[in-house]
Design brief:
By secondary structure, the chain is of the alpha/beta class. It has 2 domains: 181 residues, Rossmann fold; 175 residues, 3-Layer(aba) Sandwich (Rossmann fold), CATH 3.40.50. The chain is built from 11 helices and 15 strands. The strands form 3 sheets. It has a 7-stranded mixed β-sheet with strand order 9-8-7-10-11-14-15. Strands 2-1-3-4-5-6 form a 6-stranded parallel β-sheet, with helices on both faces. Helix 1 links the parallel strand 1 and strand 2. Helix 1 crosses helix 11. The longest helix has 15 residues. It is globular.
Length: 373
């Protein structure tokens, strides 16, 4: 009796994803015939559009996960598009990632758009915990697969040295979303500090752009933002300035940079771009005027508001660009649009750019310099 030949690969890519990344995954699969969406569901549930993306739980709240079509995992390349934007959803995603590799996923790749503990990468005094190292250990625990180490890709990780926190079981790949920025030839690039300038300057050298570097200086008891060696710019009122960085937290420093630029160069349009718009709640007090006052009833007159309100309230900031590396930013874009329109602001103040082109480039292993970190 002759042995039956078993095909070991069909050169397809199975794209698994966390439900919060559903829209990104669906766009990618719709445009690329060689990419198919992977599915997770309870084995006893009938397959529907809802069960393909809704991760079920047991009655005690812990995840009850099942990989559909396990044979396809063994004969196709596999990608998992993660979302680590809240601590509560990290465990279930690690469970899926570990299980995919354990079930002989080929050429496994994990894409983490936002590395949330990236700002806690060092210990400055005894007792502090560098949670960036902790998260790196969790991802480094991904077992070796049948085709070798899992590739873990990050978009604009906060500190480049964090790539060395990972163990040998994974291969770290760093990418950037700076290539998504809708620039015109005469736009000016500004950096909030020397660190951002050293990291991203090379990405804007191709067109010999004018660049501005801001810095914080101590004046008396205050730290103020100034411009370091301010360049001479002709017809600046006809140009746009983009302040760029990897992330925006409360936005205070970025707004101070915008104010410093307008103080130096006059009534110039200042825009901002950061891949990750974190926007934690922060105290915002605009006195008796401004957008915040108009919407105090929305949040019950509380003292801490989502920090993206600061940008709507600032006359120095024309528009803020972030991405959906953190999924909530799509919702913020919609809410900001409504608030701005009701406040009589005629231009767009908040834009959420789609990371789909960057994710597609990572999956396809494309040579795209605009996305290389």
């Amino acid at each position: 009796m002759m042995a039956t030949y078993v095909q070991t690969t069909v050169n397809q890519t199975l794209l698994f994803y966390h439900p919060s990344m559903k829209s990104v995954a669906q766009q990618i699969a719709a445009k690329h015939s060689m990419i198919t969406l992977g599915a997770l569901r309870h084995p006893e549930e009938k397959k529907t559009e809802e069960t393909e993306t809704n991760w079920p739980t047991f009655s005690d709240g812990w995840p009850n996960l099942f990989i559909e079509g396990l044979h396809n995992v063994k004969v196709n390349d596999c990608v998992f598009l993660a979302s680590f934007d809240t601590p509560a959803i990290i465990f279930e995603q690690l469970a899926v990632i570990y299980a995919l590799v354990g079930n002989r996923a080929r050429n496994m790749k994990v894409i983490v758009p936002w590395f949330p503990t990236g700002t806690m990468e060092r210990v400055s005094e005894p007792g502090e915990i560098a949670t960036a190292s902790t998260m790196a250990r969790l991802l480094s625990a991904i077992p070796l697969g049948v085709t070798g180490a899992t590739v873990v890709s990050f978009l604009d990780i906060h500190a480049l040295q964090e790539q060395f926190y990972f163990g040998d079981n994974v291969s770290v790949e760093l990418k950037t979303c700076m290539g998504l920025l809708p620039l015109e030839d005469d736009d000016i690039i500004a950096f909030p500090d020397d660190g951002a300038s050293k990291r991203y300057k090379r990405m804007f050298d191709d067109k010999k752009r004018t660049m501005i570097v801001c810095e914080k200086k101590r004046v008396g008891q205050k730290r103020i933002v100034t411009i370091k060696d301010p360049p001479d710019i002709q017809d600046v009122s006809k140009k746009r300035v983009f302040i760029v960085d990897d992330m925006i937290q409360t936005g205070g420093t970025m707004i101070q940079c915008a104010e410093a630029i307008r103080t130096k160069y006059g009534d110039v349009q200042v825009h901002m771009f950061a891949t990750h718009g974190v926007f934690p709640e922060t105290p915002i007090d605009d006195g008796d005027s401004g957008i915040v006052t108009q919407y105090k009833n929305k949040y019950g007159n509380k003292k801490r508001w989502p920090s993206w309100y600061r940008f709507l309230n600032s006359n120095s900031v024309h528009c803020v660009y972030v991405t959906n590396s953190i999924p909530k930013n799509k919702i913020i874009q919609e809410e900001a649009s409504i608030i701005s329109r009701n406040a009589g602001i005629k231009h767009v103040k908040f834009v959420c750019l789609d990371i789909t082109p960057v994710i597609t480039s990572i999956i396809s292993n494309a040579d795209d310099p605009q996305y290389d970190s």
